[in-house]
Known about the structure:
With 428 residues, the chain is mainly α. Helix content is 75%, strand content 0%. The chain has helices spanning 2-23, 28-42, 53-73, 77-82, 85-109, 115-124, 134-137, 144-172, 180-216, 221-242, 246-261, 265-268, 270-295, 301-311, 313-322, 330-338, 344-356, 361-400.
Amino acid sequence: MVAVTTVLVIIIVWSAVSSPLDRRGITSALFFMVVGFIVTLLLPQVLDLRVEALAAERIAEVGLALLLFSDATRLNLRALRSQLSWPTRLLLIGLPLSILVGFGVGLVVFPGIAVASAFLLATMLAPTDAALGQKVISDTAVPPRVRQALDVESGLNDGLGVPFFLVALAIANAELETGFTTAVFTNMTLQIGWGVAAGLVAGLFGGLLFRLGDRQGWIAPEWRQILALVSALLSYAIAFQLGGSVFIAAFVGGITFGYTVGPVRSVVSMLAEQAGDLLAAITWIAFGALALSLAIPHITWQVVVYAILSLTVVRMLPVAIALAGRGARVQTVAFIGWFGPRGLASLVFALIALERGVPEAEVVLTTVVVTVALSILLHGLSSVPLVAAYHRWYSAHSSRTPDAAESVSTIVPRRRREIPGASGIGQA
């Protein structure tokens, strides 16, 4: 109970000072990770959070699914349909290229690593984190089209990355019974197909009942938020049972639920988002207390180099290729390329790999942990100054070029995290 008490105290402290810290770029993930690490370093017995990998995996998965669902409920489908170019290219071109570039970098940086392990590492670090990117996505100083591209990409790429990861894990453990292309296609069909189906079923079921009950005045006020939360959990549960991607199910479920319930979607999913925040907080404290602490003795210069390249070249080069010819200026391409944080999805993949076992686990898992930790630090601290710099450039650019690609009208609904002037620049 000492560990549980300590975790609760840490979360309460963050809650009390979250706003001024967040404005300075100290995100919740950064705070929880650092505090968890420091407490473990100074008082090793206080945060003894040794839990089964499977339990930790479920906590991280459900937390990410709830955040994906709540974010997706606020997407405007009409605006999304008319502005699919950037997010589609980031997903269908950028994501596969990130895996390929990460694979090549892994073979160069770790010359003795098995080919299968290098490919596995690349798939684990390809997805970006929707939750860690919220500070940028919700900042009104960033052009709506850029925010939407990052939002949709981060919402779907972890789900789309699951088939590649599962195939890579099977190859690494010599469990693949078919050809690579067949395995990827089969896994992708199952993960996407069942994930979409689960999201549609849960989103429609919860959304239609909410709409009916709301119109008739049948829903008690205290159950409005609970209905949305349970709909999110239902999308996760159905996808899990069917063998589909729980992340795709959550995102599709959120879009379907939000479209079905109508304008109130902006407020009824707040409990789901807050529950996701709570589970993510527990995950990041455990990450700092256990994963980061255990990984430190195994960190080598190769691990650090790969982590840095993963956050820069491996991410930014594919983004530049994906957006080539789409009218985006180099400043926008660099901004989108940099803000691709690694987080909960990569940790979930690492926990699955830890549970099932993987060759060269020490190198692979240590590299994932260091990359995620470095991402939390760098993306958090750089968000405020880089958003400010990008806003200054965009303001000047859009005034000179009104028809700039970045200025295309795009509706990005207001989020709970959106505070007028949160960056010191943007206004709601």
